[in-house]
Amino acid sequence: MNKNKDVAGEEPSGALMADVARLAGVAISTVSRALANPGRVNEKTRAKINAAAKQLGYTPNAMARGLRVGKSNIIMIILPGSLYYGASQVIPQVLQSINKSLIQGGYNLMIANLDRDEISERHILDLAFGGSVRGAIILSSKLPEVDGRSLANSGLPIVSMLLDMSDAGLQSVVTNDREAVRDVTAELIRLGHRRFFYLAGPEGNYHDVERYGGVLEALEAAGLSEDSVHRSGGHLDYQHGFDIGVQAADDFAELTEKPTAVIATSDDMAISFVSRIQRTGLSIPGDVSVVSFDGSPVCEFCSPPLSTIKQPVEEMGRAAVDLLLDAIGHRQNTAAVRTVIRSNLIPRESIAAPKS
Amino acid sequence: MNKNKDVAGEEPSGALMADVARLAGVAISTVSRALANPGRVNEKTRAKINAAAKQLGYTPNAMARGLRVGKSNIIMIILPGSLYYGASQVIPQVLQSINKSLIQGGYNLMIANLDRDEISERHILDLAFGGSVRGAIILSSKLPEVDGRSLANSGLPIVSMLLDMSDAGLQSVVTNDREAVRDVTAELIRLGHRRFFYLAGPEGNYHDVERYGGVLEALEAAGLSEDSVHRSGGHLDYQHGFDIGVQAADDFAELTEKPTAVIATSDDMAISFVSRIQRTGLSIPGDVSVVSFDGSPVCEFCSPPLSTIKQPVEEMGRAAVDLLLDAIGHRQNTAAVRTVIRSNLIPRESIAAPKS
DNA sequence: CGATTTTTGGCAAACGTTTGCTATAAATCG
DNA sequence: CGATTTATAGCAAACGTTTGCCAAAAATCG
Question: Which Pfam family would be a valid example here (chains A, B) (predicted)?
Answer without folding.
Answer: LacI
